[in-house]
Specification:
The chain is an alpha/beta fold and 378 residues long. The chain has 14 helices and 16 strands. It has 2 domains: 11-124 and 367-377, Enolase-like, N-terminal domain (Enolase-like, domain 1), CATH 3.30.390.10; 129-354, TIM Barrel (Alpha-Beta Barrel).
Length: 378
Amino acid sequence: MTKASAGQVRVTGLEARLIATGIKMKRSQGIGSVQGKVKRILLRLRTDAGVEGIGEAAPWEVFSGTAEAALAALDLYLRPIVVGADPRRIQSIMAACDRALYDNFEAKAAVEMALFDICGKLTGLPVSGLLGGAVRDRIPMSFSIANPDIDADVAMAKRLHGEGVRIFKVKTGFSDHANDLRRLTKLRKELPDDIDLRVDYNQGLQSWDALPKLREIEQFKPTFIEQPVPRPQLDVMAALTAALDTPIMADEAVFSPAEALRLVEKRAADIVSVKLMKSGGILNARKINAICETAGIPCYGGTLWEGGVALAAGTHFIAATANMSLGCEFYMPKFVLEEDVLTEIVPIEDGHVIVPKGPGLGVTLNEDAVERLTVEKR
């Protein structure tokens, strides 16, 4: 009889590493730009059953917090809760984490995905199996047009179209409206007609002139317009949703189930972007999705600056959640990061992210890369 079957599994160790990875091009969004390197946290939980779980926290300082804060949260505040606990009691552990520490969603998401990874390895099931089973094995992938050098991004989009990618989300609001119109005109002119074009402002517009600008954007027939105004302006989001023919998607406006409920009550969006990093993990992400699904609002798999570990967790979540039906933007490890910490990234084939089949998250760390990219270890 194994320790797991005897009910004796305990977490014996927590290791958190701040890692830094170079990116291949500048990325600009309505709330900020990134170039050079991005930072995130790699988490490892070890057990007395000989099974290790891995997780990842990827904050962005202009969006939700810093990697350094996530490292401290894991080391100082969440470690005493997790070490010594039964890793199969995921809900109890996460409730204790919420009582011990306010916010720090990304750090909590890392803990939760490492626990799910352990449980999957103990049972032989993929995380999607622990969530009730996959409803899809492939997820349409959206690539973000975020390079201020629009010619470079058009060339990349053409190459990706040849590889089967059909969804492109254009980052707007980081310069001026005239430049947004020029970039969208160029994309519509130079990319094939079969692309699914989407627009994301990342809160980049002011409430007083958002509507006339967005009415001009509608000429490009985007599938949706994402988070045009700042996060607190839910009433403005509701007004834009009512006024425009193009669906509005909320991103920064919805971090939690409570915020999802408020959005539904105000009908402040037609679609919601669900991210494990901002919701604090799969369990809360499923609550957000359930609220949206009940209200007839479809959801989309968004991302920050995650590497392959966190995106594997997001892939399992979307695979097992029917209402997460508008694709995902899980392209960073393959197309933007210069190097990731996995031996093999989650496959992308014919414009689709392929759901891992192995136990737990179904991914394996490249130990040499982990050591090479580590800035600090605790």
